[in-house]
Every structure is written in C-alpha cells, then in structure tokens.
Amino acid sequence: MNSKTLNRFLDDRIADLHKHGLYNEIDVVQGANGPVIMIDGQEKVNLSSNNYLGLATDERLKTAAKQAIDSHGVGAGAVRTINGTLDLHIQLEQKLAQFKGTEAAISYQSGFNCNMAAISAVMDNHDAILSDSLNHASIIDGCRLSRATIIRYEHSDIKDLRQKAKAAIESGAYNKIMVITDGVFSMDGDIAKLPEIADIAEEFDLITYVDDAHGSGVTGKGAGTVKQFGLEKRIDFQMGTLSKAIGVVGGYVAGKENLINWLKARSRPFLFSTAISPADALASTEALEILMNSTELNELLWENGNYLKVKLGNLGFNIGNSETPITPCIIGDEKQSQEFSKRLFEEGVYAKAIVFPTVPRGTGRVRNMPTAAHTKEMLDKAITVYEKVGKALGII
Ligand SMILES: *Cc1c(COP(=O)(O)O)cnc(C)c1O
C-alpha cells in the first residue's frame, strides 16, 4: 500500500516522462545477448550491447563459470573482509594487475559500484576533483559521494583543464586535487587526451583517475587506453569493468600496492557488500587470459567497426568523430532519432536511440556497437536496413 504522497509523486513523474517521450519501455531479450538477439519472438541484428568481443557467450568462459560453480558453489558467502575472499578473487586480482601492468588490483561488484567505492575512499570535503564534462554518471555520483568540490572542465579541453588545475592549486583551498576522466567516451567513441592530462597532473601534482570501461578489451590492442599511450606508471587509478568487453560482471581498480591496500581497508562497497560470485570471478579470469594471449578477437572487433563506419559514412550518415568501434549516427532531432530507431527495429536491427539528457540537446543519435562476434552478413543486413530507413525518413 503506497502512501498518498508517494502515489502522487510517482504518477506525476511517470506521466511527465511519457509526455516528453522520455519513458523507456524496456525490451526483454529472450535468450543470450549475442550478435543476433530475440525480442518479441523475432530475430534482430544486435548493435546495442557492450559485449565488444563476444565473450558474454564464449564457450571457454562458460566452461570456466561451470567449473567454478562445481568447485566453489554459487556465492562468496560473506563480505570479503569477514570471510568472503576466495582464492578465485585473489587469482582474478593478480591477473588484473598483470593485464594492466600495475603492482596490484582490487575487484568490485560492478563498475558503477567501483566508482562509488574508490573515489570516496581517497577524496573528501577538503579536496577538489577536476572532472570532464562528459564523464559517465557513475563518476559523477562517485565524486558527489566523496563531498569534494567538483570542478567541471570542458570536454577534452586541455587548455581549460590546465587553467582550472592552476587556479585550484593557487587558491590554496584544497588538500588534494584529482583529475578524472573516461578513457573512451561511450556516446561519441572519442578517446581522452591522456598524455596531455598526465603532463598537467605531473606539473600540478594531481591524482589521476581513468575510467576505462569502454577502453579495456578495445583500445591498446585490448589492454586499454592507458596502455595504448604507455602511461601505466603515470596514472594512479586504472579503473575498469568486467561487464563490457570482458563479458561478465564486476569492476576493478588497478594501481600501486599502497593504493590497493588502502581501498581494501577503506572503500565501503568492499567492506559492506558481498563480492562477485565464484563463477563471475573465474569466467573473468579466463577472459583476461584470452585477451593477454591473443589479439584475434580485438582485431575482429576493429575490422567490423571499420567496416560498419565506412559503409554508413558512404551512405551519407553523420557518424561523428569516433576513434573506436563505437559508431554513432547523429541525427540531431530527438523525436526523429527515436523514430529512426523504431523503424530500424521493425526492419530487424536493434540499435537504440540516445537522446537528451544522455547526450546534449539537438545531438540525438542512434548508436551502433559492432562486436567481434558479428559476421559480415549480419553487418550487411544492418547496412541495407539503414539505407532503406535513412532514405524513407529523409536522413540521407
Ligand atoms: C558502463 C560504465 C560504467 C559502469 O560499469 P558496470 O560494470 O556496468 O557497472 C562505469 N563507467 C563507465 C565509463 C561506463 O561506461
């Protein structure tokens, strides 16, 4: 029985979302999340997942997960500090440190949770955080939770970052200052200017935090954006997720031993929430093993990404300035973007419209996420549908 106040609140707000076309009807995927998915009993070419390497359904990961269930059961049993740290978690963290080229690593239950945990374990209300204006929601919330002063700098604007870093230092108002950025920005597919950011950090002694959720498995031949630029020794926090290219679920920070020890002692989701399951831990370890031993899946991902980009660009779509396989088709108008996505769906292509407030007003788009698991036939089908719908709606 909801209170009257709660009912009024919910009914008003939900009606408001409907009125503005912002209420998202969530589709149910019937079966596995692969390059082709089943929705409402119909097959769709799936261009909406973050399963970049197709590992979510990889046989090797499935075998690892089953093995872990047989040997360790389905749950960790307690929070890590009490008695929920399994040998599988330690194994995963050692593999993560190796993967990222750092002394140590700590795993969390998700990437979102990891940003909640790690930022506020180090930063507090006497500190400031320089944050890129297009940073992910979990970074924004993690920063807020820390109660540090948040100083937004213009997206990838190095001059603005430097000015604001200088002003923050000269104010003498803060004990510590951090600069935090996505490694790859997921809506446009552009890469953060990490070498320049590392230089500014060195000049002003800033703490550096890179969230490479969309970079790991993708950039740097799979090792991520920090490694792509050879900055392993100059970035303090290499944060990532096990839920995107790695194909499973979870998050992590890789860094120096003292940082990881501190996070194990003080980050609250580590201390007060049960760790990922044995199956998640071993499947993730297997994924890292695959990534470190072969660039085959990574190469396929880039090949498919480039194929889709060239074809959609040649058809006349505005595909923006992506530097990764992420391929937006920028349409502009929010309603038209949604209509476009709906028509693609009817024709058998699943590519979601992304509109304000996720991206700035007037830059509505349909975002395509090709993966290593797509065949050329699947991509060709999608491209044919794009051409048909694009022409029908007067977009190309
Ligand atoms: C997806 C994403 C996260 C959250 O990761 P989950 O493991 O899905 O919780 C964090 N940061 C960025 C930049 C992301 O894109």
Automatic annotation (TrEMBL):
Residues 43-384 form the Aminotransferase class I/classII large domain. Its cofactor is pyridoxal 5'-phosphate. GO terms for molecular function: pyridoxal phosphate binding; transferase activity. The keyword Transferase applies. Pfam families: Aminotran_1_2 (PF00155). It comes from Oceanobacillus arenosus. The lineage of its organism: Bacteria, Bacillati, Bacillota, Bacilli, Bacillales. Homodimer. It comes from the Bacteria. InterPro entries: Aminotrans_II_pyridoxalP_BS, Aminotransferase_I/II_large, AON_synthase_class-II, AONS_Archaea/Firmicutes, PyrdxlP-dep_Trfase, PyrdxlP-dep_Trfase_major, PyrdxlP-dep_Trfase_small. Belongs to the class-II pyridoxal-phosphate-dependent aminotransferase family. This is Glycine C-acetyltransferase. Keywords: Pyridoxal phosphate, Transferase.
